[in-house]
Design a protein that fits this description.
heterodimer; A: 336 residues; Formate dehydrogenase/DMSO reductase fold; 16 helices; B: alpha+beta; Alpha-Beta Plaits; 2 domains
Chain lengths: 336, 186
């Protein structure tokens, strides 16, 4: 590698620096934009870890096709952890509950140090499991791990995204957030697997994408339906804020980017075609960027700074992710 | 696939095999020899057999889609109709409330899709049916346990009783049976 300029690395570092520099313009909005990109990037290794543990227990063609790339995505877990560092540093400026007079258990749970501790322990545990899993035999670690990951992942998703509106409460939010993470992870895996070369069981990959999209549709719609039926102020305000102005347009983009590919995947030529599956996965991944922006950015006042920070952070973190994916496994292969 | 009518004296020729791989191999060679009206019977689904038989019938999936659309449309329309026929004000929500209607719409979408797929599958297979010429061959009952059968129908353009029988024997089957018609010509 010496002597050659690593362009993605430079792009990544410059874009991330610019995104973080927007903190000087509007701290809250810039951190919100960064949070969108960090959660999106984090979804890839977190979802992949869940899939990896499921693959341990559920054999079949999907394991043959996706096993090696899923294992490789574990190298992104430290990148995802590092991407959350600016959010952890800026918790006090990003989350509105910091300024609220809270009492009792709520005051302890929604305090800066407790929030930071939960996220740090989550990533430490996730990295630990990712390291131990290939070295363990049998299914015990995977079986216990998938239960723990589901419980803990829904907790941190609520921390990262739901507590942006401290009055809002939805019992389905954790699973809804997790369905976003798995949709991103499965789409990323399909893109990585199929850009590497044609797969033997392309239809299985298409069916997997249908599955995550159906799960997302169910959880996203159920949350909406229950809040709509209850018609209580906090839930209505949460959706109302996201259903007015330009955010209403994003709602349509989010829906089309999920239900459009879902409908197209019903047709076998598109489900089994390599290029069509890559294209549909990219649409799903794009839709999830918009969805995370729709979840986060309405809570920060200065939307334009937030969007600018989000775009820069997305470019930077995706570039750094590609660098990590290209460099790390090679280095390990060279060392062994 | 259209079966030979009762006007043809012979329904077809059937070869019996012991193993699924042998059946797939036999189907491949029969298709390569130019036969088109070929059918196979096995006790369980064999991966790759449909491709070897050249089975491209997509009518049942299309009927399933149609059933889903019809079911969803009926479900939605039913709720719009009942809410207008019996208007009840619930928390001042609109009478036609799409979020609340989605559950029933989805349920009837599933019901329509399932009913259309089952009924169209039975219809295209000409089922229910009381008898079939293949049942005349005693060993055919083993198609439900551990034998694999290849049938060349007599309405195949290349079908010739003597030559086709010789060809099937060249596939090294357990046995080859001639299948007659069970019904009188009309």
């Amino acid at each position: 590698m010496s002597g050659r300029v690593n362009r993605p690395l430079i792009v990544g570092v410059v874009a991330c620096t610019l995104a973080l520099a927007l903190v000087l313009v509007d701290t809250r909005a810039a951190l919100g934009g960064w949070l969108v990109a960090a959660v999106w990037i984090g979804s890839i290794p977190i979802g992949a870890l869940g899939l990896l543990m499921m693959m341990r227990m559920i054999p079949g063609p999907w394991r043959d096709e996706l096993g090696p790339p899923t294992q490789r995505l574990m190298f992104l877990m430290p990148v995802a952890a590092l991407a959350m560092v600016p959010v952890l540093v800026g918790v006090g400026r990003l989350y509105p509950w910091v300024d609220l007079p809270l009492h009792g258990y709520r005051a302890v749970y929604l305090s800066v140090w407790a929030f930071e501790l939960r996220t740090v322990v989550f990533f430490a545990a996730a990295i630990g499991v990712a390291v131990l899993l290939p070295r363990s035999s049998g299914e015990a670690l995977a079986a216990g791990g998938i239960v723990a990951l589901t419980l803990y992942d829904t907790t941190v998703v609520i921390d990262w995204l739901m507590t942006l509106d401290p009055g809002f409460h939805s019992s389905g939010f954790g699973l809804y957030g997790m369905s976003i993470q798995y949709a991103i992870a499965v789409s990323a895996l399909i893109v990585i697997r199929l850009t590497a070369g044609p797969a033997e069981h392309t239809n299985v990959l298409g069916a997997l994408l249908i599955m995550v999209l159906l799960t997302w549709t169910y959880l996203a719609f159920m949350q909406y339906l229950i809040i709509w039926s209850g018609n209580l102020p906090q839930g209505v305000a949460w959706f109302g804020k996201r259903g007015s102005g330009a955010w209403a347009v994003l709602e349509y983009v989010i829906t089309i980017c999920a239900l459009g590919p879902l409908f197209l995947l019903f047709f076998p030529p598109l489900r089994t075609g390599r290029l069509s599956l890559i294209a549909l996965s990219l649409v799903v991944m794009f839709g999830k960027v918009i969805e995370l922006a729709w979840l986060v950015l309405p809570t920060t006042a200065n939307a334009s700074t937030g969007v600018a920070s989000m775009v820069l952070a997305m470019i930077g973190l995706v570039a750094l992710m590609l660098v990590a994916l290209q460099r790390l496994p090679m280095r390990r292969a060279a060392a062994s | 696939m259209r079966e030979p009518t009762a006007a043809q004296r012979v329904f077809g020729l059937m070869a019996e095999f012991n193993r699924p791989e042998r059946l797939i191999e036999a189907v491949r060679r029969t298709r390569q020899a130019g036969f088109e009206r070929v059918d196979a019977h096995s006790p369980f689904p064999i991966e790759g057999l449909a491709e070897e038989l050249g089975f491209h019938d997509q009518r049942v999936p299309w009927f399933t889609l149609l059933g889903g659309i019809v079911g969803a449309g009926l479900g939605y329309w039913m709720q719009v109709y009942t809410n207008h026929a019996f208007p009840i004000d619930i928390g001042n929500r609109p009478l036609v409330a799409p979020p609340a209607f989605m559950l029933i719409t989805f349920e009837l979408l599933v019901l329509g899709a399932v009913l259309f797929s089952i009924v169209s599958m039975l219809g295209f297979n000409h089922l229910p049916r009381l008898n079939h010429p293949l049942f005349d061959v005693d060993s055919f009952r083993l198609a439900s346990t551990d034998k694999f059968f290849l049938v060349v129908l007599s309405n195949d353009p290349r079908f010739d009783l003597r030559q086709t029988r010789a060809f099937l024997h060249s596939l090294d089957p357990v046995r080859v049976d001639q299948i007659g018609q069970t019904e009188e010509p009309e």
